[in-house]
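Hello again,

I reread your note about wanting to compare the complex against the isolated chains. To keep things tidy I'm splitting this into two emails, and this first one only covers the full assembly. Below are the input lines as submitted, including protein chains and any nucleic acid or small-molecule components. They are followed by the predicted structure of everything together. The single-chain runs will come separately.
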Amino acid sequence: MAIKTEPITINLGPQHPSTHGVFRLRVTFDGEEILDVEPVFGYLHRGTEKLAESRSYVQVVTLTDRLDYVASMSNNLAYVRAVEKLAGIEVPERAMYLRVIAAELQRIASHMMATGFLLNDMGAFATPLMYCFRERERILDMFEMLCGARITLSYMRPGGVFQDAPDDFWAALDTFLADEPGYIGELESLITGNEVVLARTRGVGVLSDEQAVADSVTGPMLRAAGVKWDIRKADPYEVYDRLDFDVPIGASGDTFDRYLVRIQEMRESLRIIRQCVERIPEGPVRPDLPYNLRPPEGDAYAAVEGPKGELGFYLVSDRSIAPYRCKIRAPSFINLTPLKKMVVGWKMSDLIVIFGSIDVVLGEVDR
Amino acid sequence: MGRWIVSLDFHSIYEFFAAGPVFGWDIPGWLAFGLTSFVLALLVINALMISTALYTWFERRTLGRFQVRLGPNRWGPFGILQPIADAIKLITKEDTIPDEADRPAFTIAPVLLMVPMLLVVAVIPLGKDSFLGRLNIGVLFIVGVTSVSTIAIFVGGWASGNRYAMLGSMRGVAMLISYEVPMALAIAGVLLLVGPSLPAGSEGFADVSSLALSKIVESQVLPFLLVTPLAFLVFAAAATAEMSRTPFDQIEAESELGSGYHTEYSGAKFAVFQLAEFMAPIVTAVIITTLFLGGTRGFDPVPGQAWFALKVFAVVFLLLWVRATWPRLRIDQIMGFAWKGLFALSIFNLFLVAVEIEVFRGVGGELSVDTLWIMAAINWPVTLVSIGVLSLLARGRHSRRPEPTPSPLADMYAEAD
Amino acid sequence: MTRALDGRDVARRINEAHAGAAVASNDTDVWVEIGSLTDVAGFLRDTPGLDFATLTSVTAVDYVEHFELVYHLLSMRRNHSVVVKTRLFGRDEPAAPSLVEWWPGADLQEREIWDLMGIRFESHPNLKRILLWEGYPGHPLRKDYLG
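Full-complex prediction:
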């Protein structure tokens, strides 16, 4: 006699330890196996794009802090670059170097978060997470020296940065650059060769390169699929064309590759920062601009390689002091496109790990 | 008056009650037996509760150190009163029962999980004259009683009427039942050694069943950890699964299921679940100590109980270390590990020990200490090799990582055509 | 450096394949007739030399007298990009063809545009509101929306 079974549907979230915020997945299981996934968004929707239409160009910077709230620097950078492109503003060289340093520090912090939470999703009892947080903490301390804030930074302004870095920032940065490779190595020795991690991540949630390109996936997820594409190299902005660094890629596009690419990117970021520290010139960090910018009529799209992927801002100006339209191309949001293809057929535990390896931040998904 | 309980074992307490009037009362034999049992049960349960409370503090502090943070340090010196604060908090919280829940089953589940933990400790010999330690089905009793917790977990998850809890308990039942097999087989390997390795001079144990834990302890002139390391490792892994801790914490799986079978529990019921859960490592450590580390045996000036506590502490710390550093396996990997890995290892171990005993035993069937050392010398390399072979087999295709090759879909340096 | 293709050049090539599809162009953008959007999508994606395999971003702008859909296309293989725009007139039930069939990456973004801007995408596999809930009154990013 055949036993009668039926699929069960579970609401994963909006309150769930592994959804990295308020996110909901309506999952249909056959026992432990996933038959269908339907993501439900919007729990953190604050209407950032609408709010931006009633704020001046400088004020919008504070809104961008709250998109991907673990990588505010990158958000700031993407936005101010779009404004500069729209208004045709020249950025002083020192400011460009400071921006690159800040953005790369932010990338390390964000990848630390991603790695830590990935391991937490895998069930490691918070130990790798705490190791990652310790390093992130040091970066946040440095951000505090730069601009007085730790999370919602608003460090960048159209045309430059808010202020020059103080002396103690450079001292802290030197210490950080000196011992961070050791700490990343320590973290890797805990994770990379771990049999359980390998068993849980190798071959799990594979995203092929063609799928990734067609689904507009960007960032570490795209590179883990073997696609060597990094906006910092492909379309260099700020001073990236003068810096020497590699773009790590993965071999098979599985969860392990997404983890490993992030670890390697942290090392590359350190390389970038080191070169910036050597080369940064003296000079002003912010040109004298009117507080209320009135860019000429038109539109502009500028993107940066954020920690999660291509973070772009599409601004339309009608010569008023506020953007007529401010569209945010949020990598976390678009990277969720292939989620269903990646998880169907895997088990519940894999769903959590695959979702963790995509590394979404709900502030950016819901905007 | 003038009579005192001379030592805390069954006989002396029984004698205290039965030998004459206590506070002017004559106590019949059956009542004395009952009172003695009561006193001992009170002692065991309270000792276990208090050590569990201390253990929660120890675990959280130690985990804190593992995780580059402090852990609870506000209440009392070094935060040692934290468990009391926790208990007060949990007990005074509202005890909710969901509408969907099966009320009687929902209420009984925490108790059902708690009781086996306490029962197990009853048969552990904490001294040479332990009464229940000589229980002739001692090991069977432990294996049998611990499996009741499987039922408790299923009842708790099912009665909650919550799908997360249901998933957790379904996983739990599958996993716990699977891991009982290698656990029992690992114990069987130990039991083979118990009779033959009983040293001369412990005649009192000759007619005691080999399943009695007292006799197991008495036989460990050389701790069985040294003689059969494979059995120890299999047992430790299986026991980690039995108490559902990383890397086998499928039942709770916090990052997946919220908190598994006790998702819906709150207040005092939750407190009992937590207590049982924190008691599990202690109980496991107690069993491991008794079966593999020679229980109360030690060097003379230090009393046996102190040795016992020390060994339990060491095992608990080891379990904690594993918990702090390992991620969790997936449910099918866990089942595979039980049936393809541990099961095979434990059968192999049983075979190995049986053959060795057959080869090395003396005229009267006994194993001398020298032969035990020889067995240890054989078993250690065999253990390492067999685990190595097994892990190589398990890794298979996952051991090689192909060299990353850039996909032809992108070319960052492409120039305009 | 990602080369932004000259819109006039792309418009010429589109019109060679699908006469009349590209209605206007300047040095960065191409304006496409709404009716031939799917033809243009297929052409841009599959023509060797163009190879626009990735739809970076889709967005809609409300210019009050018309809506404008803006498609940012990228070819990672050739490292060049182009901006395709199309105009929709009428405020009541503006509709555009869905491009999910050509670029699956448009899936969530088109749902977002439907949700916030109220432009319906015909033949989208799952056109439901995404950030707001079903039954939310109005589409907040429209200029006439009064929150």
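For quick reference: The two ends of chain B are 109 Å apart (CA to CA).

B.
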